[in-house]
Specification:
Blueprint: E1 3-7, E2 10-13, E3 18-25, E4 28-39, E5 46-52, E6 57-59, E7 67-72, E8 77-82, E9 91-102, E10 105-112, E11 116-121
Parallel strand pairs: 2-11
Antiparallel strand pairs: 1-3, 3-8, 4-5, 4-9, 5-6, 7-8, 9-10, 9-11
Length: 122
């Protein structure tokens, strides 16, 4: 069974930085797309950024050049470097993997981590 484990969240002051990591495990051969989503209190989950296995990236408009997504295919790990954080970035950040091929087959559905909380104080 594929599992995603996020780390790196925490409390930071406005203008600060955090680096989130998400490691996927479970006899994985490849993952087509890995990404980060976030959900603030009372709001719907929204895309932050995603990256393909070939390195193509896509960012939400609110990122405004402050975040960088990257991945290490050999380690099945995706990162999110967040700089110049704002109080409105406060949310639980979830890792997502889509198109996961393992030793046991292919799963086109999204696989989610349990999330890591990011709190930005003003």
């Amino acid at each position: 069974q594929v599992q995603l484990v996020e780390s790196g969240g925490g409390l930071v002051q406005a203008g600060g930085s955090l680096r989130l990591s998400c490691a996927a495990s479970g006899s994985i051969i490849s993952i087509t797309v890995m990404g980060w989503y976030r959900q603030a209190p009372g709001k719907q989950r929204e895309l932050v950024a995603h990256i393909t296995s070939g390195g193509s990236t896509n960012y939400a408009d609110f990122v405004e050049g402050r975040f960088t997504i990257s991945r290490d295919n050999a380690k099945n790990t995706v990162y999110l470097q967040m700089n110049n954080l704002k109080p409105e970035d406060t949310a639980v950040y979830y890792c997502d993997a889509r198109g996961v091929r393992t030793m046991y087959g292919y799963n086109g559905m999204d696989v989610w981590g349990k999330g890591t909380r990011v709190t930005v104080s003003s």
